[in-house]
């Protein structure tokens, strides 16, 4: 007997030692207390406007982190009733429950029950796999005990509330409330809270969208448990258990349509923070204003649709199969709505009326006002069952089509380069090519202000006469080039002010020839243009460079802010999931009395790089002021005069049209906002007769600026001390008396004004009328 006892004790000791060794090995594999305290939730990357409205969300896991003080007490009770009513009493493990589960599993011949407490579920979800093995269960128990030592009950419950998977990519109860009910937790009813509390058992198969009956059964079980535990009374139980299923699939509410800029922000975050940017819950606040962005979207789409209506109707986008005309939702579900431009099915087409049915079953009759632009009648171009688009912008209903034409709009603050609005095309989801920053196009006459600015720095004035007569340029290779004005008209000696307002090509060519292309290229580099993108021939005068709309906007910002080169930026700050700012914009700022800092060695403050750069002066204040006056003339009496409809006197700008009408531009500004608009085809070809910058691009700019400048007072540029006004003659540009009926007040940099009333003769080196039309040799 003693021997048996000794053997039993020995075996027990060995067994205990083995168990101890196994537990020690397993325990060493568990995370440390420090790792547990440093638990980080995986949240998607979210992009916002500067005023905090959601633009985009990136990441596979939908999670909205919440704290215990934001959680309704009814939800906590529902979770405890469903999962672990002894949560606040045990030490992380329900040993009696585990014993029951072990017996049940032995009877079942496998692992059927788990008996996991909330603490054990937190341990599993944060640190362990979901495999059903006894080893994992041991780890779960040990880790739960460790969690209870390291964290308070509320901290553990908060982790559970934010981590648990609840179906449809929703992680955490706040995300689930958003996905299923499109509400905050605090706004949910008891029935809805009980529904969510019941989801952890079978989140994919038992949620109210996948299996409403199963979800209701689980909800009612939770409610019964709450009643039995005294958490709710019989009346509340009855009301909640009789509530119908109200869950609907809701996606993240995008509050502002700015997909092109959102993609720029996403690309920046992944480039600087790696793939973890999708998981670490960063919140990126961009510089764009939600109001400005909305105005930009409307203006560009309206302008491109207007262009499209001027160039024939291409017909329906699809035809329904026979017998499906009465199922509009089925047929048009594959077509996206773009704002107010929505798909519909033709339900009737007569000589004078077009009836369409939308996806929700509503019917609309479109009169001639809405289809008249096609140049024919509905019964000749459409039939019952055709799929079409309808433009419902501003409560009007037009037969529409998605345009083949493309465009871009960039709007900056000239003070520091902040992007106020950006649209890279008609529809981001039809193609992610961002024309605002990726399309390299010829600017045409949009480049002329930079050339005229160079002229002011090289001996010319706003009153200098330059010949607008025909010119033939012959290269050393024997090729000839005969540039023409847009209007095909011939002009004699023309003042620079008038030449820019009329956008005379021949004057621009003569200016570049007189200064030399290298001088002009040097000057254009001051505006941020890359020398490699600027041709070294006279074609530079007519905008044969290759630039993006963003680069053009940056260049015009130099005029708008009085002569400083600012760098466009679009991220104001980056916050982590706790709201701590991890990155500020390191923008270039205006400081007229400051010298640009040496940015080669940025200093470090509080572990964050700080680089207080000041914008370098690219242009003298005198040059900028006179150029703004010249471009103001473009709007007052020149090619940009449509902009007078805005009723402001503080605007300046320039149209741009390239050869064969392949690109149309307008860039304009005041001291608060600078905006560039480009219109063209991705594969360059003719936009059509008379589709110049003034017709295709300027109306978009006007529509946008009418909203961007609404309520802003006019702000005129202050005249530099070194700029004076002198009376000159309209025809000769020479000094004249104040009572000359052909005279006007012109701006001059002091010392460059005409000194005497001259005869109006112009130098013979091409600056003046050249009646012979002789060939000019280029070297």
UniProtKB/TrEMBL annotation:
GO biological process, one term: proteolysis
Domain Penicillin-binding protein transpeptidase: 407-689
Signal peptide annotation: none
Pfam families: PCB_OB, Transgly, Transpeptidase
Alphabetized InterPro entries for the sequence: Beta-lactam/transpept-like, Glyco_trans_51, Glycosyltr_51/Transpeptidase, Lysozyme-like_dom_sf, PBP_transglycosylase, PCB_OB, PCN-bd_Tpept
Residue ranges of every copy of the Penicillin-binding protein OB-like domain listed in the record: 313-405
Reaction catalyzed: Preferential cleavage: (Ac)2-L-Lys-D-Ala-|-D-Ala. Also transpeptidation of peptidyl-alanyl moieties that are N-acyl substituents of D-alanine; [GlcNAc-(1->4)-Mur2Ac(oyl-L-Ala-gamma-D-Glu-L-Lys-D-Ala-D-Ala)](n)-di-trans,octa-cis-undecaprenyl diphosphate + beta-D-GlcNAc-(1->4)-Mur2Ac(oyl-L-Ala-gamma-D-Glu-L-Lys-D-Ala-D-Ala)-di-trans,octa-cis-undecaprenyl diphosphate = [GlcNAc-(1->4)-Mur2Ac(oyl-L-Ala-gamma-D-Glu-L-Lys-D-Ala-D-Ala)](n+1)-di-trans,octa-cis-undecaprenyl diphosphate + di-trans,octa-cis-undecaprenyl diphosphate + H(+)
GO molecular function, one term: penicillin binding
Record's keyword annotation contains Metal-binding: no
UniProt subcellular location: Cell inner membrane
Start and end residues of each stretch annotated as Disordered: 759-779
Residue ranges of every copy of the Glycosyl transferase family domain listed in the record: 52-226
Keywords on record: Antibiotic resistance, Carboxypeptidase, Cell inner membrane, Cell membrane, Cell shape, Cell wall biogenesis/degradation, Glycosyltransferase, Hydrolase, Membrane, Multifunctional enzyme, Peptidoglycan synthesis, Protease, Signal-anchor, Transferase, Transmembrane, Transmembrane helix
Entry GO CC: outer membrane-bounded periplasmic space; plasma membrane
Principal subcellular localisation of the protein: membrane
UniProt-listed Enzyme Commission number(s): 2.4.99.28, 3.4.16.4
Membrane topology value: Single-pass type II membrane protein
Protein name from the UniProt record: Penicillin-binding protein 1A
């Amino acid at each position: 007997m003693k021997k048996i006892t000794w053997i039993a004790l020995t075996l027990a000791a060995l067994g205990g030692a083995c168990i101890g060794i196994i537990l020690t090995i397993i325990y060493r594999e568990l995370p440390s207390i420090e790792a547990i305290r440093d638990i980080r939730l995986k949240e998607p990357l979210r992009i916002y406007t500067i005023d905090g409205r959601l633009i985009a969300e990136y990441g596979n896991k939908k999670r909205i982190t919440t704290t215990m003080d934001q959680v309704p007490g009814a939800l906590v009770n529902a979770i405890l009733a469903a999962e672990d009513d002894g949560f606040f009493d045990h030490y992380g493990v329900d040993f009696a429950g585990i014993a029951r589960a072990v017996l049940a599993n032995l009877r079942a011949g496998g692992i059927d029950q788990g008996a996991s407490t909330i603490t054990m579920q937190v341990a599993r979800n944060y640190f362990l796999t979901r495999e059903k093995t006894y080893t994992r269960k041991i780890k779960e128990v040990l880790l739960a005990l460790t969690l209870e030592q390291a964290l308070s009950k509320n901290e553990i419950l908060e982790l559970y509330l934010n981590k648990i998977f609840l179906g449809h990519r929703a992680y955490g109860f706040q995300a689930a409330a958003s996905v299923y009910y499109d509400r905050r937790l605090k706004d949910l009813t008891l029935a809805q809270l009980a529904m969510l509390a019941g989801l952890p058992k079978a989140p994919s198969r038992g949620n109210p969208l996948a299996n409403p009956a199963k979800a209701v059964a689980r909800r009612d079980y939770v409610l019964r448990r709450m009643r039995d535990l005294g958490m709710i009374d019989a009346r509340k139980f009855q009301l909640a258990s009789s509530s119908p299923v109200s869950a609907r699939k809701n996606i993240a509410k995008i509050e502002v349509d700015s997909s092109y800029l959102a993609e720029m922000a996403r690309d920046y975050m992944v480039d600087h923070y790696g793939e973890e940017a999708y998981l670490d819950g960063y919140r990126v606040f961009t510089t764009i204003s939600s109001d400005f962005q909305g105005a930009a979207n409307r203006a560009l789409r309206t302008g491109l649709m207007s262009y499209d209506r001027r160039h024939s109707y291409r017909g329906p986008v699809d035809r329904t199969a026979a017998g499906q005309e009465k199922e509009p939702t089925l047929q048009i579900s594959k077509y996206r709505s773009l704002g107010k431009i929505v798909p519909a099915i033709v339900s009737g087409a007569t000589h004078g009326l077009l009836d369409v049915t939308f996806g929700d079953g509503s019917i609309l009759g479109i009169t001639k006002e809405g289809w008249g632009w096609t140049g024919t009648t509905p019964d000749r171009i459409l039939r019952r069952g055709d799929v079409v688009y309808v433009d419902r912008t501003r409560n009007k209903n037009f037969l529409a089509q998605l345009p083949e034409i493309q465009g871009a709009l960039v709007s900056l603050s000239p003070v520091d380069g902040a992007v106020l609005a950006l649209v890279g095309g008609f529809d981001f989801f039809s193609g992610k090519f961002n024309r605002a920053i990726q399309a390299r196009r010829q600017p045409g006459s949009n480049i002329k202000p930079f050339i005229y600015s160079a002229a002011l720095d090289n001996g010319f004035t706003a009153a200098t006469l330059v010949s607008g007569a025909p010119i033939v340029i012959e290269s050393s290779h024997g090729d000839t080039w005969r540039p023409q004005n847009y209007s095909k008209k011939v002009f004699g000696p023309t003042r620079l002010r008038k030449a820019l307002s009329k956008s005379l090509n021949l004057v621009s060519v003569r200016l570049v020839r007189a200064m030399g292309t290298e001088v002009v290229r040097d000057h254009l580099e001051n505006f941020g243009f890359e020398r490699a993108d600027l041709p070294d021939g006279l074609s530079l005068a007519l905008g044969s460079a290759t630039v993006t709309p963003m680069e053009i906007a940056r260049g015009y910002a130099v005029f708008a802010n009085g002569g400083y080169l600012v760098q466009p930026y679009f991220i104001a700050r980056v916050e982590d999931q706790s709201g701590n700012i991890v990155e500020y914009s390191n923008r270039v700022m205006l400081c007229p009395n400051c010298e640009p800092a040496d940015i080669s060695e940025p200093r470090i403050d509080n572990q964050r790089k700080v680089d207080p750069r000041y914008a370098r002066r690219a242009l003298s204040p005198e040059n900028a002021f006179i150029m703004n006056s010249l471009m103001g003339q473009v709007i007052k009496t020149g090619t940009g005069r449509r902009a007078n409809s805005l009723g402001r006197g503080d605007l300046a700008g320039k149209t741009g049209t390239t050869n064969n009408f392949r690109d149309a531009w307008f860039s304009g500004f005041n001291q608060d906002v600078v905006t560039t608009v480009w219109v063209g085809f991705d594969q360059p070809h003719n936009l059509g007769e008379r589709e110049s910058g003034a017709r295709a691009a300027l109306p978009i700019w006007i529509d946008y600026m009418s909203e961007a400048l609404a309520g802003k007072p006019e702000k005129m540029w202050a005249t530099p001390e070194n700029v004076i006004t002198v009376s000159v003659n309209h025809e000769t540009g020479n000094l004249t008396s104040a009572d000359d009926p052909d005279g006007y007040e012109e701006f001059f940099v002091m010392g460059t004004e005409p000194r005497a009333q001259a005869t109006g003769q112009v130098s013979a080196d091409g600056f003046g009328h050249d009646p012979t039309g002789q060939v000019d040799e280029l070297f």
